[in-house]
Amino acid sequence: MADRRASGAPSPDAPLPPSPKRIREPNGVFAVVGRIAYLPLVAISRYEVLGREKLPARGAFVLSPNHYSNFDPLAVAFLVWRLGRIPRFLAKASLWKVPGLSWILRHTDQIPVDRTGRTRGSDPLLGGLSTLRTGGGVIVYPEGSLTREPDLWPMRGKGGAVRLAIEADVPLIPMAHWGVQDIMGRYTKGLSVFPRKHLRFVFGDPVDLSAYRGRHLDAHDVVEATELVMKAIEALLVELRGGTPPTERYDPAKHHQTETGHFD
């Protein structure tokens, strides 16, 4: 990969203030939480960010990163906040039952998703659509859980991200990151904080979903559009880590595996 820092991109140790053109979305609780998290996060990791200008400074968007560590939502949230936007995740509704965490989730405008099917007639994406229609951004992990691919490449995707972006008619921004696994491995619980870790992030151009907008989507359309998103994320990840991804998208069901993870 060419050294993009030579052409003016930020160095790994570059600070992450919002661009002067960006306006922080008002959220008092997140402002406090972000400032509390700032020192510990920058103490254990340094951020290299490519394509930061591709995250919309204003207006609604869907952001779709890869997902391979239970720590990476915190790293992604911190980065998005430092770039001037409130990070709102679609998260399992069961997290709202955790004392203390539920208060933070509610007051930082996170979006609960009930995937149990217990609420008849409900659409798990309605909360995300509501946020998008008021001009907010929503972060959706299209894999739905931590990747099960042995070498941490993105696995098969689910349709939530494209359904949101198409129905709300907003851009879907692919994103990849690498290095978070050095802080917390895929299924580990402990943190590795020394030495300081190098985290790399790259935002991509919006995925071209024009062929799917303005019409009814059937299951095949959703699968096809989702694969466009997964290919975009995969290409960005290759840019960060190098190597060659598998020729076939990993599917846990074909390996008789269940899935784990908090976000969908």
Class based on secondary structure composition and strand pairing:
alpha/beta
What is the straight-line distance between the termini? 31 Å
- Quantity of strands, as a count: 7
How would you name the CATH homologous superfamily?
Glycerol-3-phosphate (1)-acyltransferase
Q: Any idea what the radius of gyration is?
A: 18 Å
Low-confidence stretches: 1-13
CATH topology type: Glycerol-3-phosphate (1)-acyltransferase
User: What would the average pLDDT be, to the nearest integer?
Assistant: 88
The number of domains is 1
CATH classification class: Alpha Beta
Number of helices: 6
Beta content comes to 5-15%
Question: What string gives the helices and strands in order?
Answer: HEEHEHEHEHEEH
Biggest sheet architecture: 5 strands, mixed
Task: Describe the structure in your own words.
It is a single chain. Helix content is 28%, strand content 12%. With 264 residues, the chain is of the alpha/beta class. The chain has one domain (26-255): Glycerol-3-phosphate (1)-acyltransferase (3-Layer(aba) Sandwich). The chain has a five-stranded mixed sheet. The chain has a two-stranded parallel ribbon with strand order 3-4. Helix 3 links the parallel strand 3 (90-92) and strand 4. Helix 1 packs across helix 2 (72-82).
